[in-house]
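Here we describe the complex-level prediction in full. Unlike the single-chain runs in Section 2.1, the two entities below were treated as one system.
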Amino acid sequence: MARLVAILATTHHPFYYRTSRLPPGQAPPFAAEWVRKVESYRQTLTRARPDVLVMVGSDHFHQLWLDNMPQFLVGKAPFYDANYYNEEREFGLPRLLLKGHEELSAYILRGGIDAGFDLAFSNELRVDHSITCPIFTVRPQNDLPVVPIYTNIFAPPLPRPERFVRLGRTLRELIDAWPSDLRVAAIGTGHLSLELGGPRQFGDHGPDPEFDARAVQWIADGDIDGCLAGVTLDSLHEPGNATHGFMDFMLMMGMAGCNKADYADSLDLFHTMEAYFTWYPNGVDA
Amino acid sequence: MSKYLVNKFLYTIDREPELVERYRNDPAGTVAWWEKERANQLLHCAGGEASTWLSFTGSERRALSEHDHVALFGMGAHPFLTLTLWIAMFERDYAEPLAMQRDYAARLARFSLPYPDIAT
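The structure predicted for the assembly as a whole is:
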């Protein structure tokens, strides 16, 4: 069977790519610590020596639109072009080409549908910064095939938090049972409290530092029950109007099970808190 | 309310660099042209397939024509779409990094939770 060697759950911050490349004289004061934390986090993936990446993210109204909006979508293609004109314009993100892993995509689609998730699929998917930010941060050589999985955290009606956790559990069961000798790592990105396009955006911290502190603790402790008790679709509006991206963290918690994270770190940045978690489901040296 | 159509306007303008400039420089003319020529285009269908029923309400047309992001927020336009397009059009007019985004937020200060519903 395949071996799930690492599960990573992290925020995706589209400004990291440009900020990390600024010369010291031009870099903002927080840049050095940010780069140091990201490089440390990158080691948690590197040491797991993965062969293929299952990547969970959310399209930001790029390819997926309100005329035909899937709740959960799995890419099944030999390649994925990546990043869009408005991400180049706003964040300075370069275009990328990622390799796909069609066999694992097909396996997840079949198994996921049979497990009760009517997964949408795409044979021509251009992924955005929710997928490419972790490539830039934890696998900048972009040398591994990927299976992108998109969730709808953006366009209501959304699936409820419990559904994200259950999908994470299902993906875990599927990967553990995949008849392959490959080493799989799963990487999911989302947000803690976040406001975009509202009155609380771009403050000195995330819009709700107390929520962020609770969220970091839930994730680090693998406290899925506590998290589910503290979060609903309605309550996620309160910490910030884009905080539903936290449900991607909940999906990854479902994948990791009720286990403490093996690596947990965070960084309080302007307008958002960055967070970095890794689990080794089969041990650090699996 | 045709929140969907307002969102479709923001989404389709944002995707085309020349339309971003056109909307910045001539908002009322761009809104009128778009509603006549583009509003009913089916985005993911080949050829000239189109819908027949989509149009703005008067208040939506006015808010878009006057670059009134506060009114758009109040109507429940998707805040990510509005913000992204506004950054593309207006960030260049501010000297300091994030000054535009902070001014944008300050103008929305009268809104408290719960914010206007963005469901379409």
